[in-house]
């Protein structure tokens, strides 16, 4: 099981690392704190990130 840092997740999603941290804090993205409560260092499993992406994939877009 491979884990990714916040920066690695941000690079894959093409967002800023701050967005990833906020998504973890809002419990939109499941992450694990490997640091301390005062200074968290989050990790996200690759399979969790894949599920996150799959859940947000748009299949059919209706056009007006």
Automatic annotation (TrEMBL):
Coiled coil: none annotated. One of its GO terms (molecular function) is DNA binding. Residues 4-56 form the Helix-turn-helix domain. This is Helix-turn-helix domain-containing protein. Pfam families: HTH_17. InterPro entries: HTH_17, SinI_DNA-bd.
